[in-house]
Amino acid sequence: MSADVDQVLTHECPAVLCTEQVDPDMLLCPRHWYQVPKPLRRAVWIAWHRGAGAGTPAHRAAMTAAIAAVNRA
Ligand SMILES: [Zn+2]
What we know:
This protein is mainly alpha-helical. The chain has helices spanning 30-33, 38-48, 57-72, and strands at residues 11-12, 21-22. Strands 1-2 form a two-stranded antiparallel ribbon. Strand 1 and strand 2 (21-22) form a beta hairpin.
C-alpha cells in the first residue's frame, strides 16, 4: 500500500473489520457490496443518482441500511 494522493479519493470499507480501500463512487468494497441484498443495493443506487443524491437524507438512509445488512451477515 502506497501513501499517495489516491488516498484522498478513496475511503475505507465501512463493513466491520474490513480495511479495503473503496472508490469514492462505491459505498463498500466489492466483496461486501455483493453481500447487500439486491433491493437495498438498488435503493442505494437510486438514492445516489450518479452522485447527485450524495449526502441527501434518502442516500444516507439507504447507505445506513446497506451497511447494517452487511454487518448483520
Ligand atoms: Zn469490505
